[in-house]
Design brief:
single chain; two-stranded parallel sheet
Length: 119
């Protein structure tokens, strides 16, 4: 091998998070909307995301992992951080959310990822 690895035989190689997630109606709707954006409008917007994963990949994973409500807020706040003067770098979706992130306090989701990638 010369410094690169191939995906294992039979694995999914794709743009979005391949991990296991519950296919609830909200999650399927949310991830479908993100995928629709990726297949249509994303090409017109261009490759301008300042983060890895990209904002749409982040939103897809956040919705798949944490549901439409929490993941949707996380995706929105991530998108807002991507503008001029915002953060940049690697900013992964947290595997689990701290208890302080409650559904009835959506403004708290903007704190996720704010400190990572700055500078």
């Amino acid at each position: 091998m010369h410094g690169h690895q191939h995906a294992p035989q039979g694995s999914r190689a794709g743009r979005n998070w391949p991990g296991p997630w519950r296919r609830t109606p909200g999650r399927v709707l949310g991830t479908s909307l993100v995928r629709l954006y990726q297949l249509t409008l994303s090409g017109f917007v261009g490759n301008t995301c300042r983060h890895l994963p990209t904002c749409s990949e982040y939103a897809y994973e956040a919705i798949a992992r944490h549901g439409l409500w929490a993941g949707g807020w996380m995706g929105l706040f991530r998108f807002l951080r991507c503008g001029p003067g915002g953060t940049h770098g690697i900013d992964n979706v947290p595997e689990e959310l701290a208890p302080r992130f409650r559904w009835f306090l959506p403004w708290r989701y903007r704190e996720i990822g704010r400190k990572r990638g700055c500078g």
